[in-house]
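RECORD TYPE: inverse folding
INPUT: C-alpha cells
STRUCTURE:
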C-alpha cells in the first residue's frame, strides 16, 4: 500500500500540465471556445472565426520539434473584422485574478497573415476597452507587410508596450511565442529560444475587466489577431526554456505516456505480480 501511495504522489507531482490554469487547443468545429482545464467558462465568439483549419504540423520550429501533431486551429481576422472569444462575463477567473506581484507564463502558436498596417496580433488579453481597467496582453507585433522587424509584445495596459528584440517572420509559417512574468520581470521566448527581457508591472483587474482569446476587448483593428492560432496556454508559474519547449509540443500533440510513467507502472505491476504469486504458492 505504501508503494502504491508513493506512486500516486510521484505521478501527481509530475510537471506535465501540473500548473496549467488555462488551455485552449483551438480544436472546436463550431460554437464556443473551451478551456480544457475546466477553470474558465466557455469563450463566446465575436464575429465569425473560421473553425477546423490546419493546425501545427510535424516539424522542427527552432528548439521545438513536433512529432505527433494532432488537432486543428482556428483562423481569426482579417484585423478589419473583429474576431475573438470573450471568456466569461466578469473578472472572476484564474487568469483574470493573477496578481501583478505574482508569476505566470503565457504561450501559444500563431500562423500570421500579412497585415495591412502595423499591428499587434494579441493571442491572450485581459482588461477592458482602451486599457482603462489595466490588465495585460500578449501578442505578435508586426510593423510592416514584409515581416521584418517583428517582435513579441507584452503590454501592461495604460503603462507600457514592452517589446522583445526584433526578428523576421514568414507569413503562413507557424511560430511559437511565449513570455514569462514575475512581479514585473518579463522574459520572451521565440520557438523555445530565449530572446531578451523587460521590466513593467501591470495593474490588477477591476470588475469591468474581461479575458479575451484572439484579440483585445473593445480595441481597434490593429489589436486583433490576423491568422491562425493553436495551443494557447497560461501557467501559474515561470517556466524555463526546456519546460516551454515541452509544453509547446504537448499543446499540439497526441499525448504519449512518459518513460517514467511506463517504468513505474511496470514496477508496480511486477510488485503486484510477485505478491499474487506468493499468495497462490502458499
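DESIGNED SEQUENCE:
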Amino acid at each position: 500500500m505504501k508503494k502504491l501511495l508513493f506512486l500516486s504522489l510521484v505521478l501527481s507531482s509530475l510537471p506535465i500540465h501540473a500548473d496549467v490554469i488555462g488551455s485552449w487547443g483551438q480544436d472546436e468545429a463550431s460554437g464556443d471556445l473551451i478551456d480544457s482545464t475546466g477553470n474558465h467558462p466557455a469563450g463566446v465568439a465575436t464575429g465569425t472565426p473560421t473553425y477546423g483549419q490546419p493546425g501545427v504540423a510535424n516539424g522542427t520550429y527552432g528548439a521545438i520539434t513536433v512529432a505527433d501533431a494532432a488537432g486543428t486551429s482556428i483562423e481569426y481576422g482579417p484585423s478589419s473584422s473583429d474576431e475573438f472569444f470573450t471568456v466569461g462575463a466578469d473578472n472572476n477567473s484564474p487568469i483574470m485574478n493573477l496578481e501583478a506581484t505574482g508569476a505566470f507564463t503565457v504561450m501559444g502558436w500563431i500562423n500570421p497573415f500579412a497585415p495591412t498596417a502595423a499591428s499587434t496580433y494579441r493571442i491572450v488579453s485581459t482588461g477592458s476597452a482602451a486599457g482603462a481597467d489595466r490588465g495585460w496582453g500578449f501578442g505578435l507585433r508586426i510593423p510592416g507587410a514584409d515581416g521584418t522587424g517583428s517582435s513579441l509584445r507584452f503590454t501592461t495596459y495604460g503603462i507600457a508596450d514592452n517589446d522583445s528584440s526584433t526578428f523576421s517572420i514568414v507569413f503562413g509559417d507557424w511560430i511559437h511565442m511565449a513570455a514569462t512574468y514575475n512581479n514585473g520581470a518579463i522574459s520572451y521566448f521565440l520557438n523555445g529560444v530565449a530572446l531578451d527581457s523587460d521590466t513593467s508591472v501591470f495593474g490588477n483587474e477591476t470588475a469591468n475587466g474581461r479575458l479575451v482569446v484572439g484579440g483585445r476587448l473593445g480595441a481597434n483593428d490593429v489589436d486583433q489577431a490576423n491568422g491562425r492560432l493553436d495551443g494557447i496556454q497560461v501557467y501559474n508559474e515561470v517556466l524555463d526554456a526546456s519546460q516551454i519547449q515541452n509544453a509547446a509540443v504537448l499543446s499540439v500533440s497526441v499525448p504519449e505516456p512518459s518513460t517514467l510513467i511506463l517504468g513505474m507502472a511496470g514496477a508496480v505491476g511486477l510488485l503486484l505480480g510477485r505478491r499474487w504469486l506468493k499468495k497462490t504458492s502458499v
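NOTES: The radius of gyration is 21 Å.
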